[in-house]
Design brief:
The chain is mostly helical and 325 residues long. The chain has one domain. The two termini are 39 Å apart. Keywords: Cell membrane, Membrane, Transmembrane, Transmembrane helix.
């Protein structure tokens, strides 16, 4: 029910119109400059880089089990052969060393699922995936609370339940991405230009990513009054920055004289660690953007509610709002 209400609010025509218009009425370029300046200051004070490194460590331990869980479900439903066919298009959106390492690992896992007893293995595997990957999301939740300067008052059970729920959501999101990659050629693009098909895949995956980030920012933290305008903008900016970062890292690692010459056989592991670290950093920055936009909007609303004081001549002076410091 909460997810249905969330989708209605985010995808409504009024929400789309307000999102295009900006976080709020009168939100100017100067306001964006103020927000970005404060994000830079807060990111330095909160040690976002150090927090992102800690979250990335747990993400490294969680990403392979998560993807194996996705492959297990897809292998049971559609068969191992179909799963192997989809690994190529999915790997195309990742940096080459990252794609190579993950593809090799997942191919081996899918091959192991081709035998008998896949149903029992699926159940056991999914339980292990949810528990293992929830530690990664738990670390991310802790990092988000540090970034937004809020205390997580939920008990241990609620925290772990939230982390497990986010893990399940990530599992469904990745499966949806896999389905999108497989479905695009079936909607009339089989004979179209490859670039068009790839662009459509990326656009569909971007929508999934934004929705996932909105859910993370809204329900991952212990805040029931988060501003939806700020959350949408933070998620959109984070997704855009993540896409640019992934493309830039892919271009860099495409050169065999890049990290491969330095790390040798560990180039894939180094690329995965770098990609996950930068991804976590961008997600945390998105939360910083949410907080600063919300802070500016709250300050502006509070300022509007204060009646102007009369000046010496008896006329009401027009107050001038200043950004929250």
């Amino acid at each position: 029910m909460r997810i249905t209400l969330f989708l209605r609010r985010v995808l409504s025509a009024d929400a789309m119109r307000r999102a295009v218009a900006g976080p709020g009425e009168g939100f100017t370029a100067r306001d964006w400059i103020v927000v970005l300046q404060r994000v830079r200051k807060e990111a330095k004070e909160d040690n976002v880089g150090l927090i992102a490194a800690g979250v990335a460590f747990w993400a490294i331990l969680s990403i392979v089990p998560l993807l194996i869980g996705v492959m297990a479900v897809a292998s049971l439903v559609a068969g191992p052969a179909w799963v192997r066919e989809q690994l190529g298009p999915l790997a195309a959106i990742l940096p080459r060393p990252v794609a190579r390492s993950l593809t090799d690992q997942l191919t081996e896992a899918v091959s192991a699922m081709s035998g008998q007893g896949r149903t029992l293995g699926l159940i056991i595997g999914l339980l292990g995936v949810l528990w293992t990957c929830s530690r990664g999301f738990g670390a991310l939740i802790n990092g988000l609370h540090v970034v937004i300067d809020a205390e997580d008052t939920r008990n241990v059970i609620r925290k772990r339940a939230t982390a497990v729920g986010l893990t399940a959501g990530a599992l469904v999101t990745v499966m949806g991405a896999l389905w999108l990659v497989a479905s695009v050629p079936r909607i009339g693009l089989r004979d179209a230009d490859v670039v068009v098909g790839f662009a459509l895949r990326c656009a569909l995956l971007a929508v999934l990513a934004v929705i996932g980030l909105i859910l993370l920012y809204r329900y991952g933290t212990d805040r029931n009054n988060a501003d939806w305008h700020a959350v949408r903008w933070g998620a959109g900016i984070a997704m855009t920055a993540w896409a640019v970062m992934s493309v830039a890292l892919a271009v860099y690692t495409a050169d065999t004289g890049g990290r491969s010459s330095t790390y040798g056989t560990l180039a894939g592991a180094a690329a995965i660690a770098t990609w996950l670290y930068m991804s976590c950093y961008i997600i945390l920055l998105g939360a910083e953007i949410n907080v600063e936009i919300e802070r500016l909007l709250t300050h502006r609303a509070a300022f509007r509610d204060v009646p102007p004081e009369p000046d010496a001549s008896g006329t009401e002076a027009t107050p001038v709002a200043e950004p929250a410091g």
